[in-house]
Amino acid sequence: MADVRFDQVRKAFGQAVAVKSLSLSVASGEFVSLLGPSGCGKTTTLRMLAGLEFPTSGEIRIGSTVVNDMPPGQRDIAMVFQSYALYPHMTVAENIAYPLKKRRVPRAEREAKVREAAATLQLQALLDRKPRQLSGGQQQRVALGRALVRDPKVFLLDEPLSNLDAKLRAHMRAELIELHRRLGKTFIYVTHDQLEAMTMSDRIAVMHEGELQQFGAPKEVYERPANLFVAGFIGSPAMNLIPGELRPLGSGLGFAGAGLNLPLASGGTAGEALTLGVRPEDVTLGDGPFSGTVRVVEPTGHETIVMVASGDVTLVCRARPDVPLTVGAAVPFALRTSRLHAFNAVTGHRLPVTFAP
Amino acid sequence: MRHLAGRVVFNLFAWTVVLVLTFPLVWMILTSIKPQFELFRIPPAFWPEEVTFEHYRRLIDETPFLKYMRNSLLLGFATTFVVVIVATLGAHSLVRFRYPGRERLAQLVLFTYLLPSVVLILPLYLMMVRVGLANSILSLVVAYTTFALPYALWLLRSFMQGIPDDLEAAALVDGATRLEAFIDVILPQALPGIISTALFTFILAWNEYLFALVLVNTDEARPLTTGVMNMLVSAFNIEWSLLMAAAVMMSAPLIVIFAFLQNYLTRGFGAGGLKG
After folding, report:
1. How far is CA A39 from CA A50, A57, A84, A184, A207, in A?
2. What is the pLDDT of residues A245-264, one digit of tens each?
3. Which residue of A has its CA nearest to B174?
4. CA distances (Å), B70 to each of B78, B219, B250, in order?
5. How many CB contacts within 8 angstroms connect chain A with chain B?
6. Whole-complex ipTM
7. Among candidates A71, A87, A146 on the partner chain, residue whose Cβ is nearest the Cβ of B167
């Protein structure tokens, strides 16, 4: 059991900076996802923790040990690679036994542990096969087996599900959650898939261009995104971001933009450029003070995704399937003002602004 | 029907090519077992009237043929050993390690091929004399290593570029040292490349003539190529029967090796051609 700490870790490859001053603490036994688009530095972060890359500056700790200069084999970590990285010339049993062999575990104990890991992952029937004779899902299991056979302090997983088909991915997600619960170890999981991060993690670290954008529980990241990047990245369909500014309205201030006028309850200064964030489920169609034109209707069965033009922006909304909608017709709508988000349009930071009901 | 005709034509063509190519080999073998007096008969007879192994016996009993054979084998294996070890480690470095000028270095390796080897003979000879290696098998090992190494490095580099980085990373995380990861994971993957490199080097060392002629002029160190020429071919006479018997014995090891490792060889050359 061990916690993991990054303290102002920076990694540059020549001129290119992959990770800019990252500070992050992962508690012992926690499941943390590093989430972000490709090139955001999440894989580099994981590889630094594994010892496959070395930080340019800063400090990485596993438990109480600074591991900056420690070779990967001594860090007591296990890693599952996106490509699985199974040794093609070894059988499944030899693949799983390899980390034990390198740690001079006696043969009898090694065989017992391989059998145990194989039983956990239902690989017993495949132990004598070579990796190329296995399906993608089976290879994935072998890679997991090789990781868990050694009982490491920390599990590192680098997009382990991205090479599986959608159905198998959903299944493996559930298996990973179960595995984490059973082992109680620290898991650090790199992914670009928000669904994986949201469903599996205790906390999510959202990264973008080498910087940590927000680190919090999935609910928190979804409900209180720290900045415009997180707001736009998390959620599908994405949050509507409406540019506008704060103007005097009645006795106080109001947000004006895209034909909307929303009085503020607190916060903000007059003339400030502000981006309003509205989740698709926070637009209620059919009744309300605003009016727009229905542009596109996409029924998915349990809900309908609707594009509504209002002023010069198009709002993406989720509607119940029983709301009658005609393309081209005007539709009244309301916003759930308690769940709106406001961001500084220049810095992108979340603003402590609340809207009047 | 057209399909069948096409196959027949193709097969006929292929067999014609095979016949043309194997004729000299067959003629070599037949000549080596004909008695001397049958050789120059006119019109020439294809099959010998009488089969004799006298020439082989004479070569082995009365000439230094076996000594040359031993020298050639020693030379071939030593060169192969040195080239394979240096090229495998070197190629691994060119593929996996990050250091300034790595790509440039890889290109420079091929540049060494731009120099015609004739130009190198005299300087190499003088250097060998200077370091006291002249007239030894070791001098030829060093010389052959210098030609075989660039190609070997290039071939193995293409091979190793095809091995995913993740494999080595996985081995490191699993607790292997760099050298262990190289031996446990990289080498088995690069085996076809290593075998073709070894074959290429061995054949080069086995067949080389020019450097052997210049750098060595004692029977103690002479390999088969120059040894056989020296003893059987003179300005006045060529001992055809003995020469053919010697040629058969020189070709046999290569033919045997090829028969066994042909698969690896074509795979290796394929990889070399594909990338780089």
Report:
1. 18, 20, 20, 30, 10
2. 888 887 788 888 877 888 88
3. A99
4. 12, 11, 11
5. 60
6. 0.83
7. A87
